[in-house]
Amino acid sequence: MVIGVPKEIKNNENRVALTPAGVAELRKHGHTVYVQVNAGVGSGFEDGEYIAAGAQMLPTIEDVYGIAEMIMKVKEPIAQEYNLIKENQLLFTYFHFASSEELTHAMIERKAICLAYETVEKTDRSLPLLVPMSEVAGRMAIQEGAKYLEKPQKGRGILLGGVPGVKPAKVLVLGGGIVGTQAARMAAGLGAHVTLMDISLPRLRYLADVMPANVDTMMSNDYNIREEVQQADLIVGAVLIPGAKAPHLVTRDMLKLMRPGTVLVDVAVDQGGCIETCRPTTHEDPTYVIDDVVHYCVANMPGAVPYTSTVALTNATLPYALQLANKGWQQACRDNAELRLGLNVVGGKIVYKGVADAFGLPLTTVDDVMTEEAVAN
Hints:
Layout: E1 2-5, H1 20-28, E2 32-36, H2 47-53, E3 56-58, H3 61-67, E4 70-72, H4 79-82, E5 90-93, H5 101-110, E6 113-116, H6 131-148, E7 170-174, H7 178-189, E8 193-198, H8 201-210, E9 215-219, H9 222-229, E10 234-237, E11 263-266, E12 287-290, E13 293-296, H10 306-327, H11 329-335, H12 337-340, E14 343-346, E15 349-350, H13 353-359, H14 366-376
Parallel strand pairs: 1-2, 1-4, 2-3, 4-5, 5-6, 7-8, 7-10, 8-9, 10-11, 11-13
Antiparallel strand pairs: 6-14, 12-13, 14-15
Helix pairs in contact: 1-2, 6-7, 10-11
């Protein structure tokens, strides 16, 4: 298969979809890999490393899209990429369709094969291609939250871990999944007092057993959230519903309950956000203030630590990319139910329920589109 790796063009996105080690592995299986010039520089990988691994370098993003059968990316295509995508071209990347109707309609129009990292799912309901970036984002949520609690950043002017004789900050984490767990661990490690909320009692029991002593668990509901936001210095939104829009757990009216300088970090912002007043921001302009509450809502948080993120992502995606390249997407998805769940849009039709439900669009079964593809071929 011919695989293309374009340079990411989303604002301040420094990650790349494939490391030189990943290129070498694909080449070992007989595949051709084209990488756009300077695609890996932001993550610390020079063109020479890709060439040494067996990649061929192309000067422009148009060249990469024009030649590749499978495009490997990190973030969803943005508007200037839409017209570069060819019919039946396989795109393997994060899409988060449910948060963008424009992107959804664009991919339907292009009749691409859209296989989303975030909905590849194991039998235990875990999301193997979302986990590494969730781990990074969960830890970064606390790192960034601590920074924006500083007074020059319009925060409350409180040190997360406190000092002897001064109480530490109070951190509220909404969601006990990968992001929430990592955020709670990081905050606790820095000495904060952490409250971790989830709707699953078995999950809360598990977290109560494994978390440090300065982490309390609490059932997530509207009453408890309203009570806790009044005392929290830093609130982290870490709720994910695979492939669907995140629910608003912190509503607009709750901001009036918070103390001036409280910091909100919404890690779910690229899936619509679980804090109603959050909208996507960039690393270039990461925050804004509403009702004296600081909002940090960067949609590609792991892009700020691109070396760590790129290596972690490639470690997770490469085995799946090899299956797609070795077998073709149809056979790979027939053989592997995990990959099959990654299919969101195929040949102009939505095949993932969460995306169809988000915009009230028709849903087609994967079996039906695969049958149509087989007939067409």
